[in-house]
Amino acid sequence: MITIETMDRPAWMAVLARAQAAEIEALLRETASLPPHRIIRGPEIGLTMMRGRAGGDGAAFNLGEATITRCSVSLADGTLGHCWRLGRDRRAAELAALLDACLQGDALREALLTRVIEPLRAQQAQTASLTARRAAATEVRFATLATMR
Amino acid sequence: MKPGFSDPVFDSQEGFSALMQAMARPGRIQRCQMLRDLPDGLQPAAAAALLTLADAETLLWTDAQGEARNWIAFHTGAPLVAEPGRAQFLLAIHNMPELAALDPGTDETPQESATLIVQVEALVDASGWSLTGPGIETAHRLSAQGLPADFLRQWNANTARFPRGVDLVLCAGEHLAALPRTTGISEPNRLKESG
């Protein structure tokens, strides 16, 4: 279970990579304003090759290409924030990179984790659980001789 | 960390155009001023040439250290190698590596040879060396300060193994000029003796 105390960089990056720009902006409006930042790279859209393994342990094969957007920003003190996310949302990539940079410093971390990241994480967990339950409701169990025995 | 190209598409096209003109007209000085805010040690033309040429699929060697090295690694995405002989692109900002130690390609695939970008102290048109070869109508004058003392010996050995050999891009500040392996260099005083 992820709580605000155990939330580390991979955890907040995972949340930010899935959040929509509008959701982040809405939560940011109620939080302290973010420090000025400088764009180091992007936001730019490109493709990445996704690789998979059959059954999870077979030989790696190329599954297909996915669109990603990446952005890196730097704060006045030199802290770098990065974001790589699926899709083409430039604004979301820039906001996520900026938040990643701010979350690394102690000054804003507590407030941002409580007011931005945690609500986003809760919302994402709820959506995932809803999708899982909807899918579970349509699951079909095939009764075969092997399972009946 | 300092930013790279502000517009990656148009800036790298401008860099490519400058490099292509420089290679087609050896010794002619081109300008590359897309990058203005750079880490210590890197100059605009050399940095722009490197960002234009190197990417994640090219092996890169550089003697830049510290912030400049991090900047190069981040913005090119190219794997940095320790041995100059393995690299396809090289950037020398302090000491030029021996030309003989770099990858000259093979007789079947001379295009796979290394390209060396050297940051020199100054590049001046219309004085110094006399350049001859493809892309130069009669002779072109160029002088570069800050190269090793035995540079001409190394360069003559490099041109002697044509079609193999390395190509050179000399950069100083916002200016760059290329010396492809087909360009012959003679010192001006030798010309006077022979003439």
Fold and architecture overview:
The complex is a heterodimer of chains A (149) and B (195). Chain A has helices at residues 9-18, 21-29, 90-104, 106-137, 145-148, and strands spanning 37-53, 60-75, 80-86. Chain A has 149 residues and is an alpha+beta fold. Chain A is built from five helices and three strands, in the order ααβββααα. Chain A has one domain (9-125). Chain A has a three-stranded antiparallel sheet. By secondary structure, chain B is α/β, with parallel strands linked by helices. In chain B, strands 1-8-7-4-3-2 form a six-stranded mixed sheet. Chain B has a three-stranded antiparallel sheet with strand order 6-5-9. Chain B is globular and about 45 Å long. The longest helix of chain B has 17 residues, at 8-24. The chains are: A alpha+beta (149), B alpha/beta (195). At the A-B interface, strand 1 of A face loops of B.
Summarize the structure in short.
In chain A, 47% of the residues lie in helices and 27% in strands.
Key structural traits:
heterodimer; A: 149 residues; alpha+beta; three-stranded antiparallel sheet; 3 strands; B: 195 residues; alpha/beta; Rossmann fold; globular
